[in-house]
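Onboarding guide, step 5: your first structure request.
Type a short instruction followed by the sequence, for example:

Predict the 3D structure of this protein.
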Amino acid sequence: MTGVHKQTIMDMLVIAGERCEKLMQDRIKGIAVKDVEADEIWGFIGCKNRHKLYKGITDSKVGDAYTFVGIERNTKLILAWHLGERGIEDTEAFTEKLHEATSGRFQLTTDGWRPYESAVAYSLGTRVDYAMLIKVYAKDREGEQKYSPPEVIETVTKIQIGDPDPSRICTSIVERSNLSMRTSIRRLTRLTNAFSKKLEHLRAMLALYFAYYNFCRIHSSIRCTPAMESGITGHVWELRDLVCAGY
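The system replies with structure tokens like these:
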């Protein structure tokens, strides 16, 4: 279709991803924020974890992969992201990135993933009013099989640090952002054969997506890009600007 070898395209994706990741690290640092939501979105590389055992796969770079995302509720800016396993080590790596990206005191809401308790306390404890919003799901009926999560029947608020405003304890913005990711990044679409085969390719694609989202895509609710709304830049960027920034 393109007349260019597939491997050449993948190599260019990795280069573009590395540059976009560096751009995010350089430009989104010490940003004054008011209200931050964080969540994780599931995907996989090569095959799902439950299939690794019977396939005899021991490679740690194959299997379930979670993308941690932190977004400012008002400016819609993606502040930090991290690709890894859904464990303590990667949760702490994400909250450290969130610490570097922000400044001042702010309110933070996450889901009920328990490693957040210690990770947020360590990385952001003196700077946040922090609450968890825990969803309680209905039990599936016996024999019923679904490809989506069960129905949410209740949400429980758990105050962790400080004095968060109850009216702002919410994860709807980051969850909507996750939906945009699934519909925009084919590698994250459920029930597809378009999943990533290599960790570095998924990481590069995510870096490109987040940089494009922050600097190039006009958000309908704020009528500009999140980077413009946050005062990081004064204009809408082109893709060329992303991959050439700093080079």
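Each response can be followed by summary notes, for example: The chain has eight helices and eight strands.
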